[in-house]
User: Which sequence fits this backbone?
């Protein structure tokens, strides 16, 4: 099987759009096209033809380019069946456990509600590539706009169950501010301190901190550590349940001014 070529396209200030290209078949998907213009430019530069749009959720900074891309390329929009009325141009409706294919590369659909009630992630196991939209960020997680803390915690546990060498392709460059918050709640975490120092160095050079390695997120991302004894201790919540600790970390992040 040929390589799956993944390219990152910055958009709208801090969004990342991804092109996923299968060399053998020539099929190309775009994940969460915030806008059409930079996608069309990147396709043109690469000499690729768009075959699919993969949407993780309905927010405008993830579906904003859908209709223009469909009109100009005839590509097919894949999105969550339960949110079909909010995904512009949806043609293929998917749910938990469904598989989609870009050429011979298959991705499993994982339902991860919390940021929105209908949010999905795409896991390309052979390429070790996770596309998780606004659910899991490098050193952070999405805000709870429509779902509950309990839903989001269980969604994050599903992503945490993937292998350590999974590459986390999230949809925003929020890592440096996430790192400042993470250090405020988990200052004794050596893995986090090393990760945060590397993020500062990358950002000082204007470079992307995404994708990140899931194994490093497991060790350093406070939102993936709400069930760990040392994290609970750092929060002053030794005897609290996992969901309560997760909810408190999320609440502190919402009001954090760092
Ligand atoms: Zn969003
Ligand atoms: Fe977003």
Assistant:
């Amino acid at each position: 099987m040929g390589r799956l070529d993944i390219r990152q396209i910055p958009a709208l200030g801090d969004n990342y759009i991804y092109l996923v290209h299968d060399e053998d078949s020539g099929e190309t998907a775009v994940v969460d096209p915030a806008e059409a213009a930079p996608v069309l430019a990147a396709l043109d530069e690469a000499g690729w033809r768009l075959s699919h749009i993969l949407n993780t959720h309905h927010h405008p900074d993830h579906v904003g380019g859908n209709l223009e891309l469909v009109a100009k390329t005839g590509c097919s929009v894949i999105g969550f069946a339960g949110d079909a009325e909010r995904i512009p141009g949806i043609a293929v409706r998917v749910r938990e456990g469904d598989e989609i294919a870009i050429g011979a590369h298959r991705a499993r659909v994982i339902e991860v509600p919390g940021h929105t009630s209908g949010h999905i992630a795409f896991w390309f196991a052979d390429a070790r590539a996770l596309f998780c939209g606004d659910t899991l960020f490098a050193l952070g997680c999405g805000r709870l706009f429509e779902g509950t803390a309990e839903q989001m915690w269980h969604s994050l546990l599903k992503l945490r169950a993937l292998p350590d060498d999974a590459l986390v392709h999230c949809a925003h460059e929020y890592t440096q501010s996430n790192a400042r918050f993470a250090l405020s709640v988990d200052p004794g975490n050596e893995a986090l301190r090393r990760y945060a120092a590397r993020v500062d160095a990358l950002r000082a050079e204007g470079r992307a901190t995404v994708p990140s390695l899931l194994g490093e997120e497991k060790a350093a991302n406070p939102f993936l550590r709400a069930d760990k004894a040392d994290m609970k201790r750092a929060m002053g919540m030794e005897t609290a349940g996992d969901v309560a600790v997760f909810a408190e970390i999320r609440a502190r992040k919402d009001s954090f001014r760092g």
Q: What stands out?
A: The pocket of fe (iii) ion (ligand 2) is lined by residues 59, 61-62, 134, 171-172 (CB under 6 Å).
